[in-house]
Amino acid sequence: MHKTVLRIGAPLACMLAFVPAVSAADKPQIDTGDTAWLLVATVLVLMMNIPGLALFYAGMVRKKNVLATAVQAVAVAALVTVLWFVVGYSLAFTDGGGLNGIIGSLSRAFGKGLLGSVHDLAKTVPENVFLMYQATFAVITPAIIAGAFAERMKFSAMMWFMGLWLLFVYVPVAHWVWGGGFLGAAGVLDFAGGLVVHLNAGIAALVCCLVMGKRVGYGQEYMAPHNLVLTLIGTSLLWVGWFGFNAGSALASGELAGSAMLNTHVAASTAALVWMAIEWVARGKPSVLGILTGAVAGLGTITPAAGYVEPWAAMVIGVAAGAVCYWASVVLKNQLGYDDSLDVFGVHGVGGILGSILVGVFATRAINDVAKGQPVGLVDGNGGQILTQLYGVAAIAIFCGVATWIILKIIDAAIGLRVTRDEEVEGLDTALHGERVQ
Amino acid sequence: MHKTVLRIGAPLACMLAFVPAVSAADKPQIDTGDTAWLLVATVLVLMMNIPGLALFYAGMVRKKNVLATAVQAVAVAALVTVLWFVVGYSLAFTDGGGLNGIIGSLSRAFGKGLLGSVHDLAKTVPENVFLMYQATFAVITPAIIAGAFAERMKFSAMMWFMGLWLLFVYVPVAHWVWGGGFLGAAGVLDFAGGLVVHLNAGIAALVCCLVMGKRVGYGQEYMAPHNLVLTLIGTSLLWVGWFGFNAGSALASGELAGSAMLNTHVAASTAALVWMAIEWVARGKPSVLGILTGAVAGLGTITPAAGYVEPWAAMVIGVAAGAVCYWASVVLKNQLGYDDSLDVFGVHGVGGILGSILVGVFATRAINDVAKGQPVGLVDGNGGQILTQLYGVAAIAIFCGVATWIILKIIDAAIGLRVTRDEEVEGLDTALHGERVQ
Amino acid sequence: MHKTVLRIGAPLACMLAFVPAVSAADKPQIDTGDTAWLLVATVLVLMMNIPGLALFYAGMVRKKNVLATAVQAVAVAALVTVLWFVVGYSLAFTDGGGLNGIIGSLSRAFGKGLLGSVHDLAKTVPENVFLMYQATFAVITPAIIAGAFAERMKFSAMMWFMGLWLLFVYVPVAHWVWGGGFLGAAGVLDFAGGLVVHLNAGIAALVCCLVMGKRVGYGQEYMAPHNLVLTLIGTSLLWVGWFGFNAGSALASGELAGSAMLNTHVAASTAALVWMAIEWVARGKPSVLGILTGAVAGLGTITPAAGYVEPWAAMVIGVAAGAVCYWASVVLKNQLGYDDSLDVFGVHGVGGILGSILVGVFATRAINDVAKGQPVGLVDGNGGQILTQLYGVAAIAIFCGVATWIILKIIDAAIGLRVTRDEEVEGLDTALHGERVQ
Amino acid sequence: MKLVSAIIKPFKLDEVRDALTGVGVSGLTVSEVKGFGRQKGQTEIYRGAEYLVSFLPKVKIEIVVDDSQVERAIEAIQKAAHTGKIGDGKIFVTPVEQAVRIRTGESGSNAL
Amino acid sequence: MKLVSAIIKPFKLDEVRDALTGVGVSGLTVSEVKGFGRQKGQTEIYRGAEYLVSFLPKVKIEIVVDDSQVERAIEAIQKAAHTGKIGDGKIFVTPVEQAVRIRTGESGSNAL
Amino acid sequence: MKLVSAIIKPFKLDEVRDALTGVGVSGLTVSEVKGFGRQKGQTEIYRGAEYLVSFLPKVKIEIVVDDSQVERAIEAIQKAAHTGKIGDGKIFVTPVEQAVRIRTGESGSNAL
Ligand SMILES: Nc1ncnc2c1ncn2[C@@H]1O[C@H](COP(=O)(O)OP(=O)(O)O)[C@@H](O)[C@H]1O
Ligand SMILES: Nc1ncnc2c1ncn2[C@@H]1O[C@H](COP(=O)(O)OP(=O)(O)O)[C@@H](O)[C@H]1O
Ligand SMILES: Nc1ncnc2c1ncn2[C@@H]1O[C@H](COP(=O)(O)OP(=O)(O)O)[C@@H](O)[C@H]1O
């Protein structure tokens, strides 16, 4: 989201030139088209989470856990929304003064001072719309993690984890990259959340798997997805919603949003085809789950790059996403032996790392002139951007890994992370919620 | 929807000032951004109904009634759309001359005179878009009622009821509050339909339960929701679609829409958490249905207030919504003993009343200067608004209750309201439609 | 999409008039509102396909084929997106020079030259957004065909067919009608794809049925839809997404988009009611599938006319759609005896033909002044338009029929079209993808 | 010991269970089945294709009881499952040679 | 009376029903079951996790018939359910001591 | 030949199958059933309506074996399905008079 908005012949500009009397200097100039697009993008990203992600995950678990898995995304949406409004947005997206490298201030806590204001990153859109748009990112990031410990975590522990992780991991990382913190200042580029969302959630997911251990019966019992129709609906809504995620991150309606949308669609499609092809060759059959997972891998991987690269590069990124995430989810996971129930690390974590590095390769001023005319990525002649990106990857991965581990250990000591063995065998739907699908 | 659109530095204004030659006086000035947002909001509200509401309800019935329940929302959408286009919109939203306090005219029947026109409530949007947007409200209101008599009404009786109720209840009430009628004139505030939609549907639902009686086996047989995954999808689509409902009711793209969206999201999230917490304490487990119902209660309750109150007040409204609707749906209903199959009265009716009263408490000119600088609600220092709101609640509740009762009695006398006992036992899917889910 | 954009008091126009200094002559003037609407319309049309169409079809097949049926829409989306980006868009929507009557050029292959450009059909929207919008049409058209051969085609053959059909049928036909080719030049009108999408897919579907033969057990075994809840979700998403399809085809946010949306909604609703009524009388019960199919028939039939006719005419078109498509899918199909699994020809093909002819009857300059003040359709006094439309129908039907037949025969000879009898009996989910719904 | 199997209409299940516990039957096993018999099925129509669905949803109850209880059990089922309309179902009795309770290893009547 | 149970391939159900009504069997009860035997199951793969699904979908048909009808019924089933490939299934015959029609209270052969 | 039917807890299915193949049983048929017995059901609550769900999910295994195998089969099932908690289930044995393999027409023990 660090970017200059490329708008050709912007009507506002010319109006300002001719209408100085309106005291345009003090009042922000809201653009109804930009605002309309951000309002819609907010809707789309929320829809990615509920019902998109909820169904994506719910279809992959066993039938006895379908409700417990799906409701996580809803409960997280409610919890994070409240926390975001109360302090999260303010800490992530305001100027923290002396601490600004690390964290923002409380000046926007409880939505204080929003009226009549715009945020610096989106100067043509009311700030309350920007807060809402960012809220949907804050919601979906922890919700993504939930796929890693599906079918075995207590609902109470899950809620505590999500709340603490939001405040102590998501909020600072968002500030570092987008809110004025040290990574953004160091030139790390992340258009729509390859680092802040996908890498971050993926690393947290990996730590969750390692801390919590495997599901009872993992590797022996039949744990195949019980209803991939749900997963297909979920993937589809993730896909269409991702246009709000990536093209919305242009924070304006115009050509840059168009570039981000086109790149997103091309990368997702390419990665789906690549995953399908690899599986067809390696296994003899292209699975439905493979095609769907490939698309999500492509979507995650293009996210940091969507508004920086040319569409041919998006296709290359799609190829890399399909191949590398396949390898991580299918080969690497089995070799290492951890139980990442729904492959959050293999798809989001690996995709986020991959995409964030490839930004350093393919970012170009032709699409987004973030360096004010200077070369941006390797294709522009600035190979150093790759190192900058690696710096961002490493900083966030290490911080997120350690912080997630601490949060989990504290919750485990306080109330325990896992359901009992009997509850796990019985199924979480009845055990945790007293309900079941007939 | 009675409101002044707060737009900062509106481009139209400045253009008009400088371009008098374009005869701007006679031609309405369409804003493409406002229009884009209303087009999208129309899509979102229709999506709330199909498939949102259809699934929300379908998941809660027994499997033998799932199709019959879901198709009601579709059939109502088709029927109401035609009636709305033919006479409904015109009667609700045009000037009725001498009768204007009560009802509009037929001047827009069959879409006559729409071209080149805008409606007074949305001066920057083509009137055909405004008609469509209002059509989606007219569709969803009767469709909400259908949850009350689910699993026992004849399809033919349902269609007659919906058509008559639209024309004789929804259309006049919409006119009274939004279309120039006596309640709007009296200063009753209803931003997006707490009175017109939720209270109205909720009261009608209660009357339906009382007139039609309980389901066969109610209180004895196992009638648990057969598939809450459907209800979860439905709730999610209601939630995201509600941004079209509430933020769309700003009838323009800008800060007011942002306020309505933020308030909606905060209230829904808070109410979901509150319902969850109460149930956790009272029952030992937080149910999935509870979290979902809490969210819907919050959404219904914030509806009349969404564009009038500050976001901290939306949080308070969310708390009230979660607690009061829980009590109405879980405690009160069981005490009174009526069979409101899917709790339309407890959630929508009670939420609509509660929210409409709280508008009188929390509405403020800081958000929406409807009183031209004068205080709006109690927080502004105008306690009288609460009485005005109570007047609106009472007028609509009484009218709707009586009119609904009369319509039901007429249909019952003419063709009967309920299926036979055998059909009810067999299930409505096969009995009414000759189909079933395998 | 051949149309002049009716915009009242267009701000761009007046700005250009007064601000010549901005060198408006060379740089396209992007409108943020128009762009926002096209971005959203793109999302909506993709959502029609995934998950809309995927579910619409998946619910109608037998349970053993549900995943294989649903995944077709996803795989086609991925494949077509890549092909469209690589060459499809360029061949369809650029000037082909001497061959322009037949096909475009390769000047936009791989997205070359998109930056800073707009397409002639949408002068206020960045061309990359226009490419994306058109991509979603290119995706859904072949995906529609898949309903015809559901439950019996090999996945590999399906992928080859879709790729070849896109390049050799869809791309030229789109060019003929919208991209500057001979049919558009001859005055054939097709607002949003009655010819290019629905007729085209419907004829291809019919050819597929005839070439591939019936399903094993057709006419003897129980092949009833296994889960019409999925079909209901799919229909609903098709319905709401169709606003992006038809109102998006105005290629701008304004009154014409409003007209297209209103017409679409009225026609769909009317057709649903008509199909319901016919079935109620003829069969004694209104089926859920009938109501849903009626709505889709109405949507398909109004598509070519959505931005040309008045809303009362949309109602007449809805009546015709409900009655004629009912007859085609229920009566005619059984008489002719081909096995069009999910009635693609009866609904889309027949609806596309019907609607395209009715454009000639009802198109009027009052809605869309495509003939620069001259009468447009029969209602304007230009009966000749009906013949022009018939010319378009015939040209595309014949070309599509022959080309589809050739493509199928080539694939059949090369790798075979159908799964084995044993695989068909076992079910395609396990046979083709090694997965199943539990 | 005998195995008493009853095929009944699904909505009668709760009544039959109550009747059986009323006569001292302490356990039973239920399965969802489809029945074909004198009761005629429904016609389903899908876009002009008519299907006569000859199989109707039924519920099968299985109880193993001591010989002495058989008569009472049959009577209880018959009374509770009776509606008098075609399709009420059947009761069949077959011999059981041995019964074991998995939890305790008890066998014979003690296992029931 | 005997209970003839047959475990068959699901897609053979309609043929078997027709064959049985052809030899005078007037009622039958069907359940969906999963079978394990010589026929080997399918391998399912989910993101690298392979499952050998050893249980295959089968259909169980139960008919109670007069002793005199048993042979004809077995024959009818065997002919109709036969494909010659592994997994065609089995037919088992067990004794039935009593039968009751719930609707009328008739018992013995009259109940069938 | 005997029919050994066992009603067990669903998550024990794979262990029981393995135990049975271990003692030479080559085929079995499984159905999903609901059981009612000493084990008490769960309470479900939906917006204030409480349901005591007295039927619990169980799995029924049916094997037809030679008389000589009955004891071993019972033992294998009991051991594998045992958890020691209420609701572990039952094993019932009933006589089988005839068995036919549909594919080959073989009958008696050869058909198993
Ligand atoms: N001979 C039979 N063997 C097994 N099940 C039977 C037999 N006859 C009937 N049934 C079962 O009993 C059910 C009811 O039988 P039906 O002939 O329809 O009516 P009724 O019980 O009134 O005689 C059938 O649906 C079927 O499940
Ligand atoms: N001993 C048995 N007891 C119960 N059911 C059996 C037995 N053997 C086989 N079956 C059932 O018969 C089905 C077919 O048996 P299988 O060994 O696969 O092939 P075939 O019928 O050709 O011998 C199995 O899936 C199982 O349901
Ligand atoms: N008399 C019976 N006839 C048939 N099935 C029975 C009988 N008693 C118990 N069952 C089955 O066995 C299961 C377990 O029985 P239950 O009484 O709960 O515990 P336990 O097996 O420990 O005695 C029940 O759920 C039921 O399916």
Notes on the structure:
- The complex is a heterohexamer, with 3 copies of chain A (438 residues) and 3 copies of chain D (112 residues).
- Chain A is mostly helical and 438 residues long.
- Helices cover 64% and strands 0% of the residues of chain A.
- Chain A has 15 helices and no strands.
- In chain A, helix 2 packs antiparallel against helix 8 and helix 3 runs parallel beside helix 5.
- The relative contact order of chain A is 0.15.
- With 112 residues, chain D is α+β, with helices and mostly antiparallel strands.
- Chain D is 20% helix and 41% strand.
- In chain D, a hairpin with a 2-residue loop joins strand 3 and strand 4.
- Chains B and C meet through helix 1, helix 2, helix 3, helix 4 and helix 15 of B and helix 1, helix 2, helix 8, helix 9 and helix 10 of C.
Shape of chain A: globular
Quaternary structure: heterohexamer
Number of strands of chain A: 0
Number of helices of chain D: 2
Summarize the largest interface: chains and residue counts. B-C, 65 and 65 residues
Order of helices and strands of chain D: EHEEEEHEE
Mean pLDDT reading of chain D? 93
Give the structure's gist in a few sentences.
The complex is a heterohexamer, with three copies of chain A (438 residues) and three copies of chain D (112 residues). Chain A has 438 residues and is mainly alpha-helical.
Layout of SSEs?
The complex is a heterohexamer, with three copies of chain A (438 residues) and three copies of chain D (112 residues).
Chain A: H1 11-18, H2 32-58, H3 66-93, H4 127-145, H5 155-177, H6 182-185, H7 194-212, H8 228-246, H9 255-283, H10 288-302, H11 311-336, H12 344-362, H13 384-415, H14 421-426, H15 428-433
Helix pairs in contact in A: 2-3, 2-4, 2-8, 3-4, 3-5, 4-5, 4-7, 5-7, 5-13, 7-12, 7-13, 8-9, 8-10, 9-10, 9-11, 10-11, 10-12, 11-12, 12-13
Chain D: E1 2-8, H1 13-22, E2 28-36, E3 42-46, E4 49-53, E5 56-65, H2 70-81, E6 90-95, E7 98-101
The complex binds adenosine-5'-diphosphate (3 copies).
